[in-house]
Structure prediction request, 797 residues.
Amino acid sequence: MTTWLDAQRPWLERARARWTPRTVEPLHLRIWLASPVAYDGRDPLTIEGALQYVVVKREACRETGDHGAGGLWGDLRQPGITPDDVFADCPRGYRVDVPTPIADVTIAGRLIACASIGWPAPYPAHAEGIRWRRKRADVDAYGITKANVSGGWTKALNIPVQTLATPWLDVYVRGDRMLLAELVQDTAFGGLGRDSTRGLGTILGVEIGSDHDDRSLLHRGAPQRVLPLVEDGPFDARRFAPGTWEAREAPTRAPYWVQTDISEYREPVGITRCAAPIVRLGMPIGAP
Amino acid sequence: MPTTSQIANAEVCFSYLLRGLKHRIDWDKLGAERRRALPTELADFLIPAAIAARSTVEMVKLLCQRFEIRAAGEGWEEDDGYARRGRPAYALVPRQFMPPGVVELEAEAGAPWNPKETACVRWDHLAKSIDFAALRLAVYQNPQLLTTFALNPPVEGEEAVFSPWIESAMAPAWTPTLPERLLTPRAFRTVWTLVSNLAHGADHKSGNVTMFRRERRIDPTTGEQVLVPFMSGNAVRGLWRDMIFYRLLRLVGLRVEDIPPRIAHALLAGGTIEAGADSASVDVALRRRVRGLLPAWDLFAGVIEQQIMRGVLRVHDAQVVCRENAWLLYPTLRPKRQGSADVMSFEEFHAALPVADNLTQLRLLTRHAHRDLEDSDGIQMITDTEVLLPGTTILHSFQLLDPSNVSSLAASCMSDLILEFRDIAHTGAGNARGYGQIAFDHYLPGEGHDALPPTDEYLAYVRENRDAIRAFLLGEKNGEVMKVDGVGEVKITRSGAKGRGKKATGEAT
Prediction:
């Protein structure tokens, strides 16, 4: 019997062949933002999930070939499926590791992407804020005799979204420059974070340069991303600079919201005790 | 852009100026009720006054008009005190906060302040010395602080209130930074030109003034925070959602009232996540069929039949073309010099743009009391709305998830939506009062990319599949298999109306 995972294997194999990094070098990605990005002040901003989204869209969603004689839109009659839809019927307990052009290391038996969190522009060039999202039912038009706008399915909502206004996010990775350059120009990479379909986290563009300090995992003794808490080897948390991290439960592999324990490769990927970097907003870099 | 220290200085000086002006309020004219509510009214009015004015002196004028303040005095009276009516208003400013070069009034014998520690300055001299751009930001930061300081008597050590701002002036030097070699995801863009005033309500009310929506942004050329008017992508998305689905209903000959309320809610407001709408009950077949049957749903999506779906359309915030946004507009607009093919330098572009706050004005709205009518409550209502001025230009853009992943039908549907938007040509609030009229050229995809396809395909599709679409929307023919052009066989799996209210009526008018 064909399982859900069997059905995904063709595109997964294709994705691995195309998007696994071939040449790895330390890179600096400066992601310029045209609008504030949703940010809860605790879980850091990361890009691996966004890159995975683009890979899924390119490989799992419908192939279009050379677009036919009718130009780009010419031979596309069927609706495409979104990356969300690809995983919509994924059975519980499955976890598919989607490759990106970012190299991995293994720490405490877990695959960790060599990608720092997104660091906002240094003080004073960032500010926290709230973006309110309003939604109301057009009850006058629905042809109903009575509607409750304070509860139930016609409830009017005014939802606050915590945001961070910063002109850019700096991300340091070890990865394949050419492949990354291709993915970041995809429209699927046009927005970061929550509510990116409604104006938040709009990406103006990305600059890719070299990262001479190789800051993807550690920089001056400070963890640059969520790392499993270990007490030996190069990532021994006892040697991390104090005040730059906190110990807490956190997921270690994108997509970070998936909380299953074992990946397709039988590797642990779920939430574990980690050293998580602290982003100090409103303070000069280096301030305790 | 004002520096942090300029903002701090403006805040200090204006606080003392406001306190001085308080002594010139004509309390009889103001009335007991307004006197009681003065702190609230003043705090609410400071931001609108800062928006409406173009200089500190003009802002003082607006405050004087509103609060019956006689700043200029009432002619000279030979008196022996400084707190009496008659003389122009003045402020007592601690010397540590005195702006350089401002003329002081001489302290006469018996003056109720210590001339060694405090300087007496006439209101107009002090107002002239306050940087207005800095004052606007200071007022935005905390109008309540200014009001509380001004309306309460001096207390010892009160200057400490301003200390944190003075210390914050010691921020590290900022290196101007601009994007240079951007790899940019493709987006469809256009520039709206406002034909009438545009209103888009702020998150908070300021008394009887509805401010334009602003958000704190960072200018990477200065590292400073700026408050920039904008129109949220969510607002435009909601407007477009209404337009495309009302148009679809018209095309298939239905009214909103005809379809089950929950389906109407899903189409027009994106639906509601209710108990059960989680991944445990994902119906992939239904999701794909809805996308296939309704190209507009493919674009906007939402929650339908307990299925949480994502659309392929990403609508961006509308960015006002103003100096504060110059850095992010420049790479996109690549502005040319007038009468030349040469691209302007960033500095030229930046200098040519107006400051955002100079692009707004207050628009008065009056609801007359109509006391002559028998049922009138006899209350006249006056409100102000801050609007963007006609002629203002606004950059707007959207993205389709990717052309290679969006069906030609959905793209054609998007074209239809844009044409509908161009025909209606209104956005924002208060359209019924003449606000929000815009004009724009077609959204373009940028150099080297394909434009959106014509609308013919979408319109032909809707015409050919009218019955299937109607049946789905009406909740009829549940379980029946219908053939949909380009999609194949569609099993109508809707379970019909679940909500309260009218049942579907079948045939439409």
